[in-house]
């Protein structure tokens, strides 16, 4: 006979939980339906973010340039030290050969002096410390032994110095790779942002940038300011490359970063200045009043001194701005002025 038991009713607690969950789901669904979809940033917002990334990339670029300059100096110093060590070793070998010849002559005429024999089988430093009868040696032998001792000490010092610089070079190369990666990361992020724009928006930004460059380069009023001397020659050199693209790490003659432009321009005037903006900030006499600036003076921007240009007169600077831009004039007031530097 079939069972006619009544089905078990859900507990009041379970009903309450299920009801609450269902209500929450309805509320969440309603909120989701009413919530505005995440808005895509417009081209002006993208440009603001991209400009910020370009500035950060330039900061890293100046550190990259500094690491490159240090690497080049270290390589030259190491090469010079290694050449000196090689020549010093040749000199040491000649001194040893001379002592060997003296010992051979002594042997042929009656045997090697015990002190010389001691030297030939041990370190000269140890010999000079232990030899108790220097009067047994001739003046020539004493002088030769001292020369050997000095040469060995010099070689040991140069080898230690070269070893330290090689380690420094390895550290610098690691720093170089790190900064290069940082620059590329910033530029990559900027490019991703630009890729979110439509073709029409990209074209509008490009046109705006081109108009700005043309306006800055062709219509700027420099007043009656004229450069003189080597500063004037450096400024004239920079004027000759107006329109050249900004490329991080570049120092001419067809592309530049900010300090690459200024160091290249002064090189054309026969003046060598440091490669980075931070180092250029200490390359001459500082001028804190914009009114005292002269054409060709370096102009340092930002608190960390990561940007530099050449004063062009009438409140204008000639500089390589950032990735995506070209060498052009710009009002000093567009960037946070720190001071000028007269080379």
Give Rg in angstroms. Answer: 37 Å
> What's the helix count?
9
Supply the helix-strand structural class: alpha+beta
Side-by-side strand order of the widest sheet = 1-6-2-3-4-5
User: Which ranges are low-confidence, i.e. pLDDT below 50, for 5 or more consecutive residues?
Assistant: 10-37, 132-136
> In this structure, how is the largest beta sheet organized?
6 strands, antiparallel
Nearest-integer average pLDDT: 79
- N-to-C span: 113 Å
Q: Approximately what portion of the residues adopt beta-strand conformation? A: 5-15%
> Helix-strand pattern, N to C?
HHHHHHHHHEEEEEE
Shape: elongated
Description:
By secondary structure, this protein is an alpha+beta fold. It is 60% helix and 8% strand. The chain has nine helices and six strands. A six-stranded antiparallel β-sheet has the order 1-6-2-3-4-5. A hairpin with a 2-residue loop joins strand 3 and strand 4. About 10% of the residues have low confidence.
In short:
This protein has 9 helices and 6 strands, in the order αααααααααββββββ.
């Amino acid at each position: 006979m079939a069972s006619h038991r009544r089905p078990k009713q859900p507990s009041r607690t379970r009903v309450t939980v299920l009801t609450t969950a269902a209500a929450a789901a309805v509320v969440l669904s309603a909120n989701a339906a009413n919530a505005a979809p995440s808005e895509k940033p417009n081209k002006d917002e993208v440009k603001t973010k991209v400009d910020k990334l370009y500035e950060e990339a330039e900061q890293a670029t100046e550190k990259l340039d500094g690491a490159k300059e240090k690497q080049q100096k270290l390589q030259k110093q190491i090469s010079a030290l290694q050449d000196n060590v090689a020549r010093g070793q040749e000199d040491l070998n000649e001194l040893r050969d001379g002592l060997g010849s003296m010992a051979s002559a002594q042997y042929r005429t009656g045997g090697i002096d015990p002190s010389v024999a001691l030297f030939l089988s041990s370190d000269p430093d140890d010999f000079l410390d232990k030899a108790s009868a220097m009067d047994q040696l001739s003046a020539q032998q004493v002088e030769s032994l001292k020369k050997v001792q000095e040469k060995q000490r010099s070689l040991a010092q140069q080898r230690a110095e070269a070893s330290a610089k090689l380690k420094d070079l390895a550290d610098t190369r690691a720093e170089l790779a790190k900064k290069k990666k940082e620059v590329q990361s910033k530029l990559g992020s900027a490019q991703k942002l630009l890729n979110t724009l439509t073709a029409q928006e990209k074209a509008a930004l490009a046109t705006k940038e081109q108009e700005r460059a043309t306006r800055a380069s062709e219509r700027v009023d420099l007043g009656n300011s004229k450069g003189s001397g080597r500063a004037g020659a450096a400024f004239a050199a920079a004027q000759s490359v107006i329109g050249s693209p900004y490329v991080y790490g570049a120092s001419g003659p067809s592309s530049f970063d900010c300090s690459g432009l200024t160091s290249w321009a002064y090189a054309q005037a026969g003046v060598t200045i440091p490669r980075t903006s931070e180092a250029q900030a200490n390359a001459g006499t500082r001028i804190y009043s914009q009114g005292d600036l002269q054409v060709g003076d370096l102009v340092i921007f930002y608190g960390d001194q990561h940007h530099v240009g050449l004063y062009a007169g009438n409140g204008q600077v000639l500089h390589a701005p950032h990735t995506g831009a070209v060498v052009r004039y710009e009002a000093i007031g567009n960037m946070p002025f720190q001071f000028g530097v007269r080379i």
